[in-house]
Amino acid sequence: MPEGYQVDPATLRGASTKIYEGSDAVGDAAALLSVAQLVPAALGEVAAADELACAFGEFVTSHGDDLRHGSVWVNATADGLVASAEEYESSDQGSAANLTAAGS
Asked: Which burial class, exposed, middle or buried, applies to 2 when counting CB atoms under 10 A from its CB (0-12, 13-18, 19+)?
C-alpha cells in the first residue's frame, strides 16, 4: 500500500461546486440584510422606538458586512479547491511524462 494519500481532482471540483453554492447563499443573505430597515413610526408609540431602530440599523450594517466578507472567504475556499485539483492533475501528468520518458 502506498504511503501518503491519494487525491481525486474530480472530487475536489465537485466539492467546490457545493462550496460556491454556499458562498452564493451567504452573499444573498448579505444582500437581503442590507435592505432591511426598521422605521420607528412603524412601531407605533413605543418608548425608545428611535433607539431601537438605530440599534437595528447598526446590527444590520455590522452583520451585513460580516456576511459579505464571509461570502468572499467561502468563495476563496472553493477557488482553492479548484486550484488544488489543477495542481494535482498537473503533477500527475508531469510524473506520467517523466516515467514514459524514462522507459523510452
From this structure: exposed
d(C-alpha 85, C-alpha 10), whole Å: 7
Contact yes or no for 14/78 (Cβ under 8 A): no
Where are the extended beta strands (E) located within 1-104?
none
How many domains in the chain? 1
> Could you give the CA distance from residue 51 to residue 53 in angstroms, rounded to a whole number?
5
Range of the domain at 19: 10-99
Instruction: Indicate whether this model's pTM tops 0.70.
Output: yes
Please determine, for residue 1, whether its predicted confidence score (pLDDT) is greater than 50. no
Q: Please give the distance of CA 42 from its chain centroid, rounded to a whole number.
A: 35
Q: What's the number of CA atoms in the CB half-sphere (13 Å) around residue 79? A: 7
Specify the length of the chain in residues: 104
